[in-house]
Amino acid sequence: MTFGESFELILSAALLGREWAWEEIYRTLAPSVLGYLRTRGAEDPEDLLGETFLQVVRDLPGFEGTEKDFRAWLFTIAHHRSLDAVRRSERRPSIPVENATLEFAGPVGDAEDDAIQRARAAEIEEALTGVSDDQRDVLLLRLFGELTIDEIARMLGKRPGAVKALQRRGLAALRKEISKKGVTL
Amino acid sequence: MSFSGAYEDDMGRFRNLSEADIDRIMAGRVPADGDEFSELAAGLAALKAVESRGTDQIATRHLAEIAEASGVVVRTPSLEAEVVRGATTRWRKALQLTRSFVAKLGIATAALALSTAGLAAAGVDLPGTAAEKAFDKVGIHLPNQGGDDATHGKSAAERVHAAQDAASEKGCEFGQGVSEAASANNNGKSTKEKDPCEDRNAEGTDDDTGTLEDDHGQAGDDHGQAGDDHGQAGDDHGQAGDDHGQAGDDHGQAGDNEDETSADL
Prior knowledge:
The complex is a heterodimer of chains A (185) and B (265).
Chain A: H1 7-15, H2 19-39, H3 45-59, H4 67-90, H5 98-105, H6 111-128, H7 133-143, H8 149-156, H9 160-181
Helix pairs in contact in A: 1-2, 2-3, 2-4, 3-4, 6-9, 7-9, 8-9
Chain B: H1 6-16, H2 19-26, H3 38-51, H4 55-75, H5 79-121, H6 130-137, H7 156-166, H8 172-182, H9 196-206, H10 212-232, H11 237-264
């Protein structure tokens, strides 16, 4: 989902503290950010999502750029929040939340289609455990953030060529994991 | 990481894919001539769809927090603050203009007061009494503006007229009084080098004092004529004060001559 031509208007209204503008931003971008945080294995992705948006609110007066820039900025904040959460969780015992996350997502639409979709999602999620952290970050930022190679390269502090290579190798590793399981849906 | 077996085959296949094909897979679509990637593309699309659900349940809480936080941000430096700053700037400009006007007015008033005091100190008789009264009210006594209470606060012309009206004596004393009133502005500087009336008296005592009253009677008649002349010249009294004094002196001499004439007779 994108804002299109209304982006600047929404951003200006958000700067003035208009609730409707923030609701528009949240409804448009929060699902992708939440998906990124969940898939990245954050311990409490909903709380991280809230923290991410609160930081956006605080730092918005200093933001300048297009909708694409805003999206990249938002995911950069989410990424750093996620890294912080991982560091925090490493200091204390963690509780697996994979199934709880999928349960919380709940069914949408046709029950059979939904079941198939959830099975595919679970398969990819499991396959992601077989790729490196860098490959996973690049794949998830491409998938949920819809960021370009250059944007991801800036965000992760890598060269675009290196990001491209991480993407191809990550996809190849995912396909290999899926093939190994021999699951065909 | 191992690059053996099927993984190497996959890597080979992915190396042959264009960037556009990679983008299609990441977007959950199957690339051209790439059916073998359909499962991967569908899995990625499913992952995105499933994991992105569930914000409705937490949106209310998050939006309330955002509204509160954005309200705080608005009260700190932001666009709204800029709007308020703009209005403040306009008020500030108006205030500065007012302050500037008041300051200029104050400076002009102070300069006027100082120049008035300066003129007074230089011995210039200030026109009218308004300025002197104004200074009196604030407890400042202007120098060289008349010494005693009776004449204080009056201009030279007023003092001359007052001397003319109040004068009961005629002759030398009349001219001397008017002369003193006219020159009263020169405080401390006596313009009277010698008293003409004393000169006249001195001359009068040299002569026969016994006939002085009669002589004065004749001199008084002449004085009456001189008084008429004074009436004609009344408008120029302020200027002619010193002349009056001299005229009075001449009267005295004239009187003495008559005494001599009567003595001869």
